[in-house]
Every structure is written in C-alpha cells, then in structure tokens.
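Shipment paperwork, digital attachment
Item: protein structure file
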Amino acid sequence: MAKSPETEHPQKAFGWAARDTSGILSPFQFSRRANGDDDITLKILYCGICHSDLHAVKNDWGGSVYPVLPGHEVVGVVTEVGRNVTKFKVGDKGGVGCMVGACHSCDNCEKGLENYCPKMILTYNSVYHDGTMTYGGYSDMLVINEHFVVHFPENMPLDAGAPLLCAGITVYSPLKYFGLSEPGKHLGVVGLGGLGHVAVKFAKAFGLKVTVISTSPSKEKEAIERLGADSFLVSRDPAQMQAAMGTMDGIIDTVSAVHPLMPLLGLLKSHAKLIMVGAPDRPLELPVFPLLMGRKGVEGSCIGGMKETQEMIYFAAKHNITADIEVIPMDYVNTAMERLVKADVRYRFVIDIANTLTTP
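Attachment content:
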C-alpha cells in the first residue's frame, strides 16, 4: 500500500497545496527525502507565482495529480550539503527553477539542454526517480540534486530575482538561440505581463530596439517610460499595425491566451521568426501564406538548460535586471491567483515564505 505524502519520506515538510480542480490552496503536511550525497537542502525564503502554477492547480492543461503543491521560482539558503556536493556550501543562496531531474545521458542532456530531456522531472506535479511525486516551492524546504540549483550573486535581490528562474530564462534562452541578442536588431514583445516585462529588460540590456505589442493602450506609458521600450503598438489598431509591417527582426510572443497570429506575422521582416513562449490552453490558428511570402517561421521555446540558467542569472545581476514584483504573505495566495486570472498584477507575485508560512 502506498504511503501518504506525510510519511513517504523521513523529513517533515509543510506548504500549501490544491486538492482538486477548484485550484483552492490550503495548508498541507507532507515530507521530503533525506539529503543524499549529491543533494543540497534549501530553506525556502521566497517563491514566485508563475502563470503555469495557476494552470496546474486547476488542471487546465490536463495531467495534474492532486494534491498539487506548486512553485518553480524558488530561492533560499543552503542548510545542508551532501558529501559529493562541490558547488555549494551551507549559507549560500541558491535558486531552483522548473526542473529537478533529467536522465543526464540523452543527446539533449549531453548538450546542456536538460529542459528538452524526454525524462525531465518537473519541480512539482512530476514523478521523481524514486517513484514519489514532486512538490514545489510553496513550502518551507526543498531537497534537490545540486545540478539543478543555481547560485544567486550577492547583488541579486532574492525576492525580485526569484521570477527570473522561470520568466527570465523563458525569454533569455530564445533571444540568445535565435540571434536576437545582437545589438541594433529590432524585437517585438507581445504582451506586457510577467514574461513580457522581463523580455523588455533583457532585450534592452542586449542593445536591441524594442517595440511592445499589446491590446491595452493604457500600458504604453509604462512600457516606454518605466521599462525602457522604444515604441508601442496597439495590436487592435489596424493603422498602427500597418505602419509597422515588415520592420521587425523577430518577435517574442508571451501571451498565454488565444490570440490571432496573422497580424504579428505581418510585422516581421523576411526570414524572421515569431517565437512562442506563452502557452494558450487551446490551439491557435496558423495562416500559412504569410509564412510562404517571406520565408517566415513560427518557433517555440521552453525555459533553458542549467548552464544557460546560471548564465542568465549572472547576466541579470550584472545588468541589474530583476522582475517587478508584489510581495505577498502565504495566506494571500488564493486571492493572488484570482487576481492573476484578471492580469491584475505588475508583474509577478512573490510569496514571502520565510516570514509568512506558518505551521498550524
């Protein structure tokens, strides 16, 4: 007979989890494995709330196994290290993103692309090597193989740096891979939310010309004056969109709702790419003629490997890039989820785990 989450491992742990598709989170007693030879134990200080957490607790994408304890933008302090650990010592600050395991032997793993490993293990709602479910960062502690932890430099704020472990690498990796980190290129950023606002910051640090593309005219001042975008397009304004036709070297689309692609493809120069990093829960319509007439492409990208994630954190620290956050207590999490549905946050909620997660 299978053991309960509270007794399957030796270390007692506590967090907040959803029990069903209502997505309502509540206090949850569970357990973590003992710290192994290659593991470190993190006392969790902060955890960001990602849009995918919302999808997972409600089973929007299918595949959620309840209880779901989300959180893959985790930062904390190292409290224990295994005897084989070389990258961390007790007292170091570390971050854990979207994955906690991979096979380490496939073609992708050997290229440092654990994020595309067929056996990648997600930080939560995934089955670990030992057959138990993974639970995420809305909790007090985490035991993890050191390979999947990144160093946080001293000058990187832990709270505002936490969302970079998902949102940051999600935009950084495709900008680098598709050659959109070369100074002077013109990038379109679709959507000014958790991903989009970070994309603007990284793109400007790379030296790009940045145009934010949004359905909300009210975001223009924010995009240009505060985030540093060069220009702003209202995607529902045909005149504005027509004037910008064929001007962009690439577009990164961060929107996770269903939306038309046809107008975006028109903004691209020939041979340019529209890169999808948002994850709508229903299929999008893809018109083919705009692709043919200009050899344009639609691509996808999902986070990044561990080496690149560490590179991204160091780059962000060097260029003072952090997420714009609203820090919340643990017991506010359900209200935060309701606000996230309405996009009522600028631009990322971060839970103050250390000061507000209390055992009942």
